[in-house]
Amino acid sequence: MASIVNMEVIKQQIIRTSCASSHTEYLMKNKNPLWLNPSFFVSLPFKQNEDVNPTKANYLGMNPHHYKLAVKECSELVDQGIIESTTSPWACEAFYVNKRSKQVRGKLRLVINYQPLNHFLVDDKFPLPQKRSLFQSLANAKVLSKFDLKAGFWQLGIQLDDRPKTAFCIPDHHYQ
């Protein structure tokens, strides 16, 4: 048991000395979360010379339990400044699925089907790197950190001009 505690203490010291100090200056300047910091906003690269008619959700409905969850979750996201009500002509379908991770298996997760929007975006032709080359590039690293996006999709801000394109709907509500 003592070795586990010592390992945890060592881990915390490494994190404090190697990660926290390197981010202190950034954290002092930027107290907002990433989704409210314009320097981290993502833009949606639309294809040029293509007629772009806004997507419209083919809404299949939600059972009453899922609807209550969606209203509650969206209300919390609005309160946090992550999403907002909209009158955008765009709309993608939102629905619930069961989480697949072992820790929370069976818990419901709100998902949005953005496949119709993908049709209008420029494809990224850059190939994904192989695992081996990624690990080789880390061989001489002095500091490793991870960017944990617990609710990843919500933690990346979208450029103001592109936000209407990210609109989604639940029964009686329309958000972006």
Automatic annotation (TrEMBL):
PANTHER family: RNA-DIRECTED DNA POLYMERASE HOMOLOG, TRANSPOSON TY3-I GAG-POL POLYPROTEIN. InterPro entries: DNA/RNA_pol_sf, Rev_trsase/Diguanyl_cyclase, RNA-dir_DNA_polymerase, RT_dom. SUPFAM superfamilies: DNA/RNA polymerases. Residues 99-173 form the Reverse transcriptase domain. This is Reverse transcriptase domain-containing protein. The lineage of its organism: Eukaryota, Viridiplantae, Streptophyta, Embryophyta, Tracheophyta.
